Amino acid sequence: MDYSKIIPDGISSLKPSGIRKFFDIVSTMKDTVSLTIGEPDFVTPWHIRVAGIESLERGRTYYTSNSGVADLRAAIAEYLERRFSLRYDPAREIVVTVGGSEAIDITMRALVAPGDEVIIPQPSFVCYEPLCRMCGGVPVIIETKEKDRFRLTADALRAAITPRTKLLVLPFPNNPTGAVMKREDLEAIADVLRGTDIMVLSDEIYAELTYGEDHVSAASVEGMRERTVLASGFSKAFAMTGWRLGYIAAPAEIAPQLLKIHQYAIMCAPTTSQFAAIEAMRNGDADVAEMRAEYNRRRRFLVGGLQTMGIECDMPEGTFYVFPNISGFGMGSDEFCERLLREKRVAIVPGTAFGPSGEGYARISYAYSVDHISVALDRIEDFIKDKR
Amino acid sequence: MMRNGKNADELLSILENNSKLTPEALARMTGTDREDVEKKLKEYENEGVILGYKTMIDWDKTDREYVSALIELKITPQEGKGYEHVAEKICKYPEVESLYLMSGSFDLAVLIEGKTMREVAFFAAEKLATIDGVVSMSTHFVLRKYKDKGIEFGSVPTDERGNMN
Predict the structure, then answer these.
(1) Which of A25, A220, A277, B43 is most buried by its number of CB atoms within 10 A?
(2) Residue B23: its H or E element
């Protein structure tokens, strides 16, 4: 068989995730202190796990409705209103998905036709560009800048729009930069989009992890709800990554189109996870607050440590990442991270894993204990001391 | 006690879970400076809000022999002194780990630790039962400790997280 002819170019030319590549190196090395992982180090709160266990004990091992258990959709709608002043009809406007990842995938597939342009701010999570390409879409990258605190500006957006623009991805709070969009930032974006047919995919998976003001959802800004597909999930806020559960909230004209893809590709999200998630939505706010407070301490601890050793680092306002500028050490991001790993056994992710604009930066996760972060900081300080 | 405000409460809740943190680390975590943290810690210590800094040890993982017990005591309260007099007396014994005044079918719960069962039994019979006002006593030996002060005993958790998203 000639496998080279079997796989379409669009798939064979896709590169595996750059984060993954680095992780594979890390996993072969001993005594490594890793600050690479992008998931909570907390275990899912016990009462949420119990809800999952009980659903199994009661024999709830069936498929649910395609869009998800009605109680869960209702609980999500209540939650979105309670936390972000959003109103969605649980019967027609919410689809429960397999993680935020599926939410992003089906949104791209429902909206992007071959030749459509998709505006993607970078640095950002690795999935948008490949998923867009798989739909035949054309990624149009906007490089966000450190001087703008890695926010998307209205000017940059305006300059990127063409008659073929179909979709804008809004990945905020942002992995890897930790950037958040304030209400006024989003209003400026809405001003640019008003009167157009451009849709927005707002990936708000880190919405619960902001440390200054509360998160403002893109869909809550005037003129945005009608064009926004809100993608979110349970992984980051409720420490439920392994449950693989997310959701989309979108206008009634859009959600049923996404649901068709979900229906044929997935059938329904895992039932056990859905029952656990009902508990998370109804009784999880205090857990989220507690985890957020702990992340906040670690954020201050990590950023303070980096600043003390003279590494430029803005205090990021969301997620559990910091994205320091490491361009002053006479090497590129990849080299910096590889040498840090080989010489001092500390793993962080090169900024380039999140797009070429990540050059000069690195992502450091603080989903780790303070003791763990502290050891890594000592080693980083040791690494940079003779490299300026 | 609360007059130091939100920041101070935060300090306590951090320290309650990890007393090993240095004033520098605490300052960074709470967004203040080291002098401020040291001053607050001193205040807490002086006011008796912070009573000590101890370490959680799973002695079962060492070769140290020990046994612990929960002893229930019924007390006749003394006129004008209530339970305080008896409680103060019991507190003085270094063998006593914890002492609580309880509601319900008995009055004082005494958690004690000793080298051997014999030692604990002897202490209960000779030292506690003989205190004026103690009416009855019931001793329960601890067979196994699963969780103490919020910390679970057993295997050390390893980081099994697999992805880097």
Answers:
(1) A277
(2) helix B23-30
Q: Report the alpha-carbon distance of residue B8 to residue B37 in Å, rounded.
A: 9
Both A243 and A141 in one domain: the answer is yes
Q: How far is B3 from chain A (nearest CA, A)?
A: 21
Structural domains in chain A (count): 2
Q: Are residues A290 and A300 in the same domain?
A: yes
C-beta separation of B110 from B90 below 8 A = yes
For the segment A141-156, what is each residue's pLDDT rounded down to a tens digit? 999 999 999 999 999 9
Domain extent for A37? 3-44+286-384
- Helices (H), ranges, chain A: 3-6, 9-12, 18-26, 46-57, 70-84, 99-111, 128-134, 154-160, 183-193, 255-265, 271-283, 285-308, 333-344, 370-384
**What single-letter amino acid sits at B55?**
T
Q: Which positions in chain A touch B20 (Cβ < 8 Å)? A: 371
**Would you say residue B127 has pLDDT above 60?**
yes
In one-letter notation, the amino acid at residue B111 is L
pLDDT at B156: 79
Q: The tokens of A176 are what?
A: 């890897």
Q: Tell me the pTM.
A: 0.90
Q: Which residue has the tokens 């809100």?
A: A230
| Residue ending a domain, choose from A261, A284, A307 | A284
Q: How far is B141 from chain A (nearest CA, A)?
A: 29
Q: For the domain that residue A360 is a member of, what is the CATH number? A: 3.90.1150.10
Q: Which domains does chain B have, with CATH numbers?
A: 2-47 (1.10.10), 59-144 (3.30.70.920)
> Looking at A284, A305, A326, which one is the last position of a domain?
A284
Residue A186 to chain B, least CA–CA distance (Å): 25
- ipTM comes to 0.77
For residue A215, give the nearest of A272, A268, A172 by alpha carbon.
Answer: A172
One domain for residues A207 and A273:
yes
What is the spatial order of strands in the sheet that A321-322 belongs to? A321-322, A362-365, A349-350
**Residue A374 touches chain B, beta carbons under 8 Å:** yes
Which chain B residues touch A34 with a CB distance below 8 Å?
159
State the Cα–Cα distance between residues A158 and A156, nearest whole angstrom: 6
Q: Other CB atoms closer than 10 Å to residue A172's CB: what's the count?
A: 33
pLDDT at B2 over 70: no
- Judgement on whether residues A219 and A97 belong to the same structural domain of the protein: yes
- Asked if A39 and A50 sit in the same domain, the reply is no
Residues A185, A238 share a domain: yes
Residue A296 shares a structural domain with residue A215:
no
| Closest B-chain CA to A308 | B28
